[in-house]
Task: inverse folding
């Protein structure tokens, strides 16, 4: 098994030739893909892909960049959308202080609404965080105190200390192609020591194509390259790592069907 736990099949770079993108992924051994939404208008798009393709699932959520544009998307709206049988996760959501495309307080409000939806539905929360470790950790920890919920940090690039905090709170950590970059030494050191039962792999396609595909649009097929790199980094068998991270995906995303 091999799962791409985070991709955007409806985005430019993939959507124009989506059938071929899916076939290339399957040819590389990818057995499942989670297509992530970032705006409300995308929900129907990603769900339609998941309805059509048996090895694709969908999420519903609002990216922190889009928080200002979606003040009406509350927990109730997310919970209602998550009732669809092909929706297996809530997000992506979180905090992004690098770009600050949305007001930080509105980002926090949206983040907490997604957490409430994850707690109610028991579907995993898919967290984006950039340059916002302290506030992200504070909100996740505070909200865990109100009642546990499943969650993961997607496209992990933060510090080892942040990883430890998230693991202590019960979260999973998903690794994207950035780990293959030459300047990602700190991230590589963190990934080398992550507990094997709490790690997922993703592409975030069409972004962040791993080595040896730098400069191209990312594709779910490339999750195989990231998996091979991580296995070598950790001194593990590649297929065993693929199988274990896929098993981790299904443990977290229990609504998904292998």
Result:
């Amino acid at each position: 098994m091999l799962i791409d736990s985070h991709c955007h099949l409806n985005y430019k770079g993939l959507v124009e030739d989506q059938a071929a993108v899916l076939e290339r992924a399957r040819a590389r051994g990818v057995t499942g893909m989670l297509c992530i939404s970032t705006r409300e208008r995308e929900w129907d798009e990603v769900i339609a892909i998941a309805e059509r393709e048996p090895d694709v699932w969908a999420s519903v959520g609002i990216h922190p960049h889009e928080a200002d544009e979606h003040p009406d998307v509350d927990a109730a709206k997310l919970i209602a959308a998550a009732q669809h049988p092909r929706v297996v996760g809530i997000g992506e959501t979180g905090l992004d202080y690098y770009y600050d495309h949305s007001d930080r307080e509105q980002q926090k409000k949206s983040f907490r609404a997604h957490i409430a939806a994850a707690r109610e539905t028991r579907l995993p929360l898919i967290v984006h965080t950039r340059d916002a470790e302290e506030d992200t950790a504070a909100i996740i920890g505070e909200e865990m105190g109100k009642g546990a919920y499943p969650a993961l940090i997607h496209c992990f690039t933060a510090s080892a200390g942040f990883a430890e905090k998230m693991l202590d709170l019960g979260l999973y950590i998903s690794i994207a192609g950035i780990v293959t970059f030459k300047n990602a030494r700190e991230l590589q050191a963190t990934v080398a020591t992550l507990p094997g039962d709490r790690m997922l792999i993703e592409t975030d396609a069409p972004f962040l194509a791993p080595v040896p595909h730098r400069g191209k649009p990312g594709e779910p097929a490339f999750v195989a390259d990231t998996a091979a790199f991580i296995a070598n980094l950790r001194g593990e068998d590649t297929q065993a790592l693929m199988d274990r991270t896929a098993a981790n995906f299904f443990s977290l995303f229990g609504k998904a069907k292998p």
